[in-house]
Amino acid sequence: MIKHQYSQRVYFSDTDCQGIVYHAKYLDFAEHARSEMIRESVNQNEMLKNHAAFVLKEINVVYNMPAKLDDILFVHTTIESLKTFSVVLKQEIKRNNELICVVKVKIACINLENNTVLKISDYLTQ
Q1: What φ, ψ does residue 84 adopt, rounded to 5°?
Q2: Which one from 14, 16, 28, 122 is the annotated catalytic residue?
Q3: Residue 55 main-chain phi, psi, to 5 deg
Q4: pLDDT, tens digit (0-9, with 9 covering 90-100), for 93-123
Q5: What are phi and psi of 18, to 5 degrees?
Q6: Which of 13, 21, 41, 66 has its CA 20 to 30 A from that of 114?
Q7: Where does the pLDDT of residue 1 fall: very low under 50, low under 70, confident under 90, or very high at 90 and above?
Q8: Active-site annotation holds for 16
Q9: What SS3 class is residue 15?
Q10: Model pTM score
Q11: Cα(66)–Cα(98) distance, rounded to whole angstroms?
């Protein structure tokens, strides 16, 4: 199983006037972590040249507690399941050992010319 860790500092632009992270920013943090994980094994520029791209099919976020200004967050990403046409990633966003939130994402791969689904295993492997 692929595991990946990404760190992210909380900046003022991520927060409201009380220094608490705006709820949608967690999606950005998760996206950055996913992109870095994928970058380690997939050349996305080559995919685009071949008219292929990853797309989000589903996303779910469970919030446990707020992150705050200047926190260092760690996004732990694991592949929960890898099927022919999709992959499910679980992303835990933590501050030290405190679980801030959990993001689950289902990703597919499509042909950008005709929007047909491609085998994800052709691009992403465990």
Answers
A1: -60, -45
A2: 16
A3: -135, 150
A4: 999 999 999 999 999 999 999 999 999 877 7
A5: -95, 5
A6: 41
A7: low
A8: yes
A9: strand
A10: 0.91
A11: 10
Summarize pLDDT for 19-48 with one digit per residue, the tens.
Answer: 999 999 999 999 999 999 988 888 889 889
Contact by Cβ (8 Å): 7, 72: yes
Q: Which two tokens stand for residue 118?
A: 């491609």
User: Which residues does 115 contact at the CB level (< 8 Å), separation at least 6?
Assistant: none
Per DSSP, 10 falls in state P
* Contact (CB, 8 A) for 10 and 70: yes
| Residue 80: C-alpha distances to residues 24, 70, 71, 83, 97 (Å) | 23, 30, 27, 10, 21
What's the CA gap between 35 and 33, in Å, rounded?
5
Q: Give the rounded distance of the alpha carbon of 97 from its chain centre.
A: 19
Domains located in the chain, CATH noted: 3-122 (3.10.129.10)
Q: Is pLDDT of 17 > 80? A: yes
Structure tokens at 20: 């608490």
